[in-house]
Amino acid sequence: MSHVVVSGANGFVGRALCRALVDAGHRVTGLVRRSGGCVDGVTEWVDASTDYSGIAHNWPAGLDADCIVHLAARVHVMHDTAADPDAAFRATNVDGTLRLAQAAHEHGVPRFVFVSSIKAVGERDNGRLLREDDPPQVEDAYGRSKRAAEDALRRLAAETGLEVVIARPPLVYGPQVRANFLRLMDAIWRGAPLPLGGAHARRSVVYVGNLADALMHCAMDPRAAGQCFHVADSTAPTVAELVRMLARHLGKPARLLPVPTAWLGLAGRLTGRSAQVERLIGSLQVDTAHIRDVLDWQPPYSTDEGLSATADWYRSIH
């Protein structure tokens, strides 16, 4: 049995990971900013300091962990109101991450799993599967902060011997999902026509249960030390296919309009939403061969199973 600390333990991915760890018999401490929201079996550790500014001094006496999985982050937002988004993302996602990793090393934690994002390498595949070692083509402040955090952690690992593992998921979905995926389900549930019938580019996604399983491997497997992994479902559906599968599991019709993607791209440019439109019509397929080859990892759930579980949750709250 291992002892794993999970930052952001009361969040969407954090709850799924903690549940998987507890079910597997591990001790779990949830590092959270506010008390409440952790799954049963998790011991809470509340640290309300800004960007972990007090984490080294607030380390609980006797806390002896085998690994920290760092999920807490300033997340990507559609309409950022920060005066300097790069500085705001860097303060939390780079400086805060590095403080937590340094404190982990100082308190004898041998491994630090950093949950980054596919945005740290790019948001389109340019005709070939996106690999871990591809030159970065980062497009926004969130992606830049995740890439900078990865680089800072690699330097820390080289200086201290801390075992750093980096996981880069694409869009994560599952029960309790929020943001754009939830809005998509809302639209399908209402029967709203969606101009995505011509969106045939494929997009890698990852079911939260698959991501939680992969992160457990990253935390436990000795072979993961020093590695960076892309984590995604086995299949990459088109947006149109995703809508059809979701609609089927929701018991609703898929009202897809065959609008040419060129028209959608033009509409995005005219409305200043090119980035949002690109995420619907552009291709982003990631190569997961590395985690399969190094850790013998396979997603335990198919995309259809993940969408079914997500739809079951959605129906339960409507």
From TrEMBL:
It comes from the Bacteria. Residues 4-224 form the NAD-dependent epimerase/dehydratase domain. This is SDR family oxidoreductase.
